[in-house]
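Structure tokens please, single chain.
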Amino acid sequence: FIEAENAKNFANTVFKTLEEMQRDYILEALRRTNGQVSGSTGAAKLLGVNDKTLHSKMKKLQIDRRDSLN
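Here you go.
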């Protein structure tokens, strides 16, 4: 009975899409770096990706670095 209840609860939980999770993660990295994208203390370094890769992902997800400063 407990397993069935856990399965029901899991099925009813809100599940973010991969893009929503990536957006949240990038915004959090930008918050932690005060909106800095590149450089030794930038979000790209924190995330372990190339600066250009992060810029490209931000463009695709329509993230402006200033979004993290609000």
